[in-house]
Amino acid sequence: xxxxxxxxxxxxxxxxxxxxxxxxxxxxxxxxxxxxxxxxxxxxxxxxxxxxxxxxxxxxxxxxxxxxxxxxxxxxxxxxxxxxxxx
Length: 87
Prior knowledge:
- By secondary structure, the chain is an all-alpha fold.
- The chain has one domain.
- It contains 4 helices and no strands.
- The longest helix is centred in the C-terminal third of the chain and has 17 residues, at 58-74.
- The two termini are 16 Å apart.
- The mean pLDDT is 86.
């Protein structure tokens, strides 16, 4: 999470942190694999998500894509090793 917020700030990509207390995503199964896999879920705010037509702001979608690309570009061997380090 810290890496994501740092990259967003460096690149001027707007983002908002949300921590789920209930529910979840499929990321949970990846996170619990073997010794654990670092997982971040990027989401785009949407209205009417439980209907056949959700509505999003295209700027939010662009920001999400920009952040995903920026995060992937940061994942060198040293960064990944730090993310997977067992405390």
